[in-house]
Amino acid sequence: MVAQILDGKALAQKERERLRLLIDNMRAEGARAPGLAVVLVGDDPASAVYVRAKTLAASECGVRAQDFRLPGTTSERALLELVARLNQDDSVDGILVQLPLPAHIDETNVICAIAPHKDVDGFHPENVGKLSLGTPRFVPCTPRGCMRLLEEAKVSLLGARALVVGRSNIVGKPMAMLLLAEHTTVTLAHSRTKNLADEVARADVVVAAVGRPELIRGAWIKAGAIVIDVGMNRGEGKKLLGDVEFASAKERAGAITPVPGGVGPMTIAMLLANTVDSARRRQGLAV
User: Fold this and answer.
1) Is 89 a catalytic residue?
2) Is 4 in the active site?
3) Percent of the chain with pLDDT over 70
4) Helices 45-61 and 8-28 sit at what angle, rounded to 10 degrees?
5) Is residue 54 flagged as an active site residue?
6) pLDDT in tens, 262-287
7) Catalytic one among 93, 98, 173, 243?
8) Residue 240: which CATH number?
9) Catalytic residue, candidates 121, 204, 229, 243
10) 16-31 pLDDT, tens per residue?
11) CATH no. for residue 48?
């Protein structure tokens, strides 16, 4: 068996085209285009790459993106003042503060300062609570992208056994909630889980989001299982590696995402989808 490769890059392009059409229709009906504010503090190279990719994707589909680049010495107070101004700016539908922040800034304070109805990352406690209740306003972008990949692959989740490896607030926990809402039986594991190989071997769907290069061995994968690899790690020679041993896993899985080109592009596409949803909601249009 050779797995179907779930092409996140192609699906993300499809999503951007869908969003462009939605935005064109909004503007034709007299509504304004969605506005996204992206804030980057410091000069972390990976963060700069992510922000540039988000801004380019936004312009491609018609979202009006504003970049705010702040030096690494920016105080928490100054950052919170910027967030407060963006909260009050009616042309801004989504606010994204790129993480991680410099060590002297409390990320929780910043996340909580973003207006919940503009929190397109879905990290604000109010939005986390709404997701846990099954009434989400914004689904965090990476989990939403993972669910869209599963939908595109026509994966039957009803009654399936799903394993999420990783317990972060950004991916692992919301991913588990989304899978549970689709009536899967969910196990939430992590790097300290005992007998992780046994947990993987039982799973019909594996979502790997633990941040350890090739922690999940291909031989562990159940024959025909669906594997969504969220990991993005630098290996030898700066090669990008996922959390799953791709070469051997694709020989056992029914479908698998590559790294790169799998979940990453979908994360950006879902950020834009959340921004469009916010703009429509804030202008009284159906979502």
Assistant:
1) no
2) no
3) 100
4) 50
5) yes
6) 999 999 999 999 999 999 999 999 99
7) 98
8) 3.40.50.720
9) 121
10) 999 999 999 999 999 9
11) 3.40.50.10860
